[in-house]
Amino acid sequence: KTRPSVETPRICSRHASIGGTTYYQTKRKKKMSNQSNDDDDASNAIYINLTVPPNVEPGVDSLTFEYNGNEMEILIPEDSVAGDVLRIQVGNSSSHRRDAATKSSSLMDELNGLEDDDVNDTKLVQNNVREGVATVTLGEGLKSTVTLQLLEELPKNGSSSTVFDREGDGTANCPWPSGIVLAQSLTSKMGIEYLTKMLKHSEGDESIDCMELGSGLGTCGIALAHALASIETPSITSYQIVLTDRGDETIALLRENIDRNCTFRSANKKLSVTPHPLTWGNELLTDCSAPKKFNCIIGSDLLYNSRESYEPLLNTIQQHLHPDGTVILSVRWRKPELEREFFRKAEKLGIIFVNWKEFEECESFKGRCPARLNWSEYGNPESECSNEYFLKTNVSVGNVTKSLAAITEDDMECMNDEEYASFEEKQIQIYVAGYSAKKKGRKRDFDRIN
Predict the structure, then answer these.
(1) What letter does residue 235 receive in the DSSP assignment?
(2) What percent of the chain has pLDDT over 90?
């Protein structure tokens, strides 16, 4: 049997705006636009700044970008990490005024490794080049159209000398397609109905607590807050939604995005949305001695990194999931053989993931995310259903139709933004989970004892 081509790498960021939704797509090479010059340089030097994307191999992968009408390529330095900004001097303002061709030559010399006394070596600087904003239009289930305005980095504050802990791999600074899909599904009519049923199932609980893992910019957690705020639940006195991630800078950015996009909190006093630092494997620090239990835990694109993260992630879910709670996980499959291990480990803990049927049956998402495979089938060469999906599901490449199984990295390079958005979404599924009936009984007994 032919193994489907499913292990699509996430290498460099590609920005696209489709249907009012702005997000980052992935390709090995990315034309990087010319960034703002460094106005503070006393020598009037001209710089461009390129951010190192996640999941690149320093010393091997390169960034391509366009400058002065020419496409250039530069090797990522060996000591780089995701999120670093490569600050590249391309000349100075006086030489730019004298002769644009001379400026281009100095850049060419640097990129080709030639000696040039007027050009400095590539430097790594703090990622504070400019403020970027990603827009995400939420689902049609809300009472009015809501478009999130998500800061991708903290606003500059000239008087601030705060140095943030930049713990993380750089993936927190942009919304990813699987997160967009989850945010829009939670705020669709289908999502609102699903959440309403979940709340009815929690009758007797005066407070509903929800947590997002790996929040990044807060796309899904903020969307969940909008969804819950639109549901009338007189018996519930308070909602608490906690958005979690690692690193002081990420938490500060989350706080900014919550403040900008959850203005309804002033009118809805019973709904709280807060950011909180959390490293998987650790307990969320609260005033209580026991780990806080959440009625709903959500997350998107949490499995991309490596199998080493699966046990800490599952430990965090196990520590914080209410015995009757629900997990909603949006998955963009990349390495199915590796990622299936997460679901196998979850089942051993009594956490059973199944396809979110309501999502798969929703007309708004049937065409966008058509996969109807369970986690043990997707990308499994022994699964006839999976092989059929990859052979019969088509995407466009430069207006030429090809099957998912036939897509190569070169094809990805040739896709326009809409084609690439479709390609990404056809590899996204949403799963829901809860404790098995047997495990629920054990959890209740444990909670009563403790």
Answers:
(1) T
(2) 51
